[in-house]
């Protein structure tokens, strides 16, 4: 943050800025403790690749239903902060119950329950942060980068803890992080504009969103992009060990990977102003596809670590700009619903497909083949981004043209 910006956020305003930043830090610390190392827990209870794929796919399936529901509740009653408080608390507590189960059936059922509450966390926190950033003329990436910092620290620290004390430590880290996020959320302002007070039925809202070609194309792109990104968080631990790494090395890798996202998220605003939002998104997708194809060639663990910054170029840029694209291409009265639909398709359907097929691919072929599949899926996602950037829908619709009453 620049000197002028830091001066602007001294005092009460500064406290709110750091509360939003800390909210992201601890939410993604929880995710960073859970996702990269959950396969170590699955290995400890002797699950197959197909079983791991099925469990990993259940969260996106639940999100497809739950995220629009949470979005509708937030848009209809304007209680985003209350819903986020509730879901953070329940998600953290449910995470602890994983330490008491060791069979596939119970893990599967517990994961469904966890996914129901956890599915609200990202779209609602993004909605709160986007509103805060807009009101205070900030770049969303300046806030979201703290999530990357939290994820990176958690993966590294939890990797060391898991190697020393076993997989159960990741669930304690997850729960404590979400409780900490809840405490900082109490200090986060909930910005409600006049336009966002106007609510519509879910059916009308979905009908309006489905009339927006740029939004539909972006959903398809994110289906492919986020599917591979999120599935990588599950399968990288096994992949890294297959090419010669250790569990602690997995934590180090994620520290470097997720750590590289923060500076690129910080730079995202500059590149968006310089080259445009669509160009940044397209570039991120291209780098992501190249990364997965390279991983499928079985590079050395040293090479994977040395070229850690590829994650910043791909994931960092995409995460920092995807929510901004949704905000700028959907009606303000449907912001939470649009974000929920976006995450349901990308982090929902896309992740479900990638995890299901990845589990089957691991059992039938190898972990390396999983990354060839990720590269192919991401390459498909580049096509709709090209249509957004160069096709007939390259111009965004002006805000005054929206009509959510139709």
From TrEMBL:
<keyword id="KW-1133">Transmembrane helix</keyword>
<keyword id="KW-0812">Transmembrane</keyword>
<feature type="transmembrane region" description="Helical">
    <location>
        <begin position="145"/>
        <end position="162"/>
    </location>
</feature>
<feature type="transmembrane region" description="Helical">
    <location>
        <begin position="338"/>
        <end position="361"/>
    </location>
</feature>
<feature type="transmembrane region" description="Helical">
    <location>
        <begin position="275"/>
        <end position="295"/>
    </location>
</feature>
<feature type="domain" description="Major facilitator superfamily (MFS) profile">
    <location>
        <begin position="16"/>
        <end position="393"/>
    </location>
</feature>
<feature type="transmembrane region" description="Helical">
    <location>
        <begin position="301"/>
        <end position="326"/>
    </location>
</feature>
<dbReference type="InterPro" id="IPR024989">
    <property type="entry name" value="MFS_assoc_dom"/>
</dbReference>
<keyword id="KW-0472">Membrane</keyword>
<feature type="transmembrane region" description="Helical">
    <location>
        <begin position="367"/>
        <end position="388"/>
    </location>
</feature>
<feature type="transmembrane region" description="Helical">
    <location>
        <begin position="21"/>
        <end position="42"/>
    </location>
</feature>
<feature type="transmembrane region" description="Helical">
    <location>
        <begin position="243"/>
        <end position="263"/>
    </location>
</feature>
<dbReference type="InterPro" id="IPR020846">
    <property type="entry name" value="MFS_dom"/>
</dbReference>
<dbReference type="Pfam" id="PF12832">
    <property type="entry name" value="MFS_1_like"/>
</dbReference>
<feature type="transmembrane region" description="Helical">
    <location>
        <begin position="209"/>
        <end position="231"/>
    </location>
</feature>
<feature type="transmembrane region" description="Helical">
    <location>
        <begin position="108"/>
        <end position="133"/>
    </location>
</feature>
<dbReference type="InterPro" id="IPR036259">
    <property type="entry name" value="MFS_trans_sf"/>
</dbReference>
<keyword id="KW-1003">Cell membrane</keyword>
<feature type="transmembrane region" description="Helical">
    <location>
        <begin position="48"/>
        <end position="70"/>
    </location>
</feature>
<keyword id="KW-0813">Transport</keyword>
<feature type="transmembrane region" description="Helical">
    <location>
        <begin position="82"/>
        <end position="102"/>
    </location>
</feature>
<feature type="transmembrane region" description="Helical">
    <location>
        <begin position="168"/>
        <end position="188"/>
    </location>
</feature>
<protein>
    <submittedName>
        <fullName>MFS transporter</fullName>
    </submittedName>
</protein>
């Amino acid at each position: 943050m620049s000197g002028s910006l830091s001066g602007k956020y001294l005092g009460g305003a500064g406290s709110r800025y750091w509360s939003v930043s800390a909210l992201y830090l601890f939410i993604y610390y929880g995710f960073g403790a859970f996702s990269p190392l959950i396969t170590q827990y699955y290995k400890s209870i002797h699950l197959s690749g197909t079983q791991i794929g099925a469990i990993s796919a259940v969260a996106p399936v639940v999100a497809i239903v739950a995220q629009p529901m949470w979005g509708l509740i937030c848009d209809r009653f304007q209680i985003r902060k209350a819903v986020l408080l509730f879901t953070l608390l329940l998600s953290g507590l449910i995470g602890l119950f994983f330490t008491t189960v060791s069979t596939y059936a119970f893990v599967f059922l517990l994961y469904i329950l966890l996914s129901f509450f956890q599915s609200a966390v990202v779209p609602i926190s993004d909605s709160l942060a986007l509103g805060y950033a807009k009101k205070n003329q900030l770049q969303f990436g300046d806030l979201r980068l703290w999530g990357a910092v939290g994820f990176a620290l958690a993966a590294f620290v939890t990797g060391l803890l898991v190697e020393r004390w076993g997989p159960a430590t990741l669930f304690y880290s997850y729960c404590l992080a979400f409780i900490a996020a809840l405490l900082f959320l109490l200090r986060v302002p909930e910005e409600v504009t006049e336009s966002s007070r106007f609510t519509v039925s879910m059916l009308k809202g979905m009908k309006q969103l489905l009339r927006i070609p740029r939004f539909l194309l972006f959903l398809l792109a994110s289906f492919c992009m986020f599917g591979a990104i999120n599935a990588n968080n599950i399968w990288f631990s096994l992949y890294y060990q297959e090419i010669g790494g250790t569990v602690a090395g997995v934590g180090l890798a994620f520290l470097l990977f997720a750590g590289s996202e923060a500076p690129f998220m910080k730079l995202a605003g500059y590149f968006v102003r310089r080259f445009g939002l669509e160009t940044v998104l397209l570039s991120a997708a291209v780098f992501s596809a190249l990364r997965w194809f390279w991983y499928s060639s079985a590079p050395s663990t040293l090479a994977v670590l040395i070229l850690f910054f590829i994650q910043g170029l791909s994931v960092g840029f995409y995460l920092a700009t995807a929510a901004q694209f949704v905000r700028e291409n959907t009606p303000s009265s449907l912001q939470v619903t649009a974000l929920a639909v976006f995450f349901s398709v990308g982090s929902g359907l896309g992740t479900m497909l990638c995890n299901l097929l990845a589990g089957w691919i691991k059992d039938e072929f190898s972990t390396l083949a999983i990354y060839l599949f990720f590269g192919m899926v991401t390459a498909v996602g580049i096509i709709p981004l090209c249509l957004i950037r160069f096709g007939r829908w390259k111009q965004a619709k002006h805000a005054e043209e929206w009509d959510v009453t139709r």
